[in-house]
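User: I'm curious whether this sequence folds into something compact or stays loose and floppy. Could you predict its structure so I can see for myself?
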Amino acid sequence: MQNCDFLICYDISDEKRLRKIAKMLEKVSIRIQKSVFFYKNASKKSLKNLLVDLNNLIDQEDDDVRIYQVDIYKSMHFNNGISLVKPNILT
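Assistant: Here's the prediction. I'll summarize afterward.
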């Protein structure tokens, strides 16, 4: 599998878990909205590691995490959003 892009969305019921997950995702991905992240150019290994980490943090009964593979070259988007090809990240 070549490196791929993913959209990660979550709904976490506990604020403490939510902060941990958000911090973890901010280290490896770009925040698009409050609970939506863009994980760019992820290798199979890095995605697997992220899934293990997420699985260890979430409550399987109360939380919802969804990960969608994205092909940004075949996706529709409007010019008002940030560029996912060359995102402008402020540090």
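Summary: DSSP finds two helices and four strands in the chain. The first strand starts at residue 4 and ends at 11.
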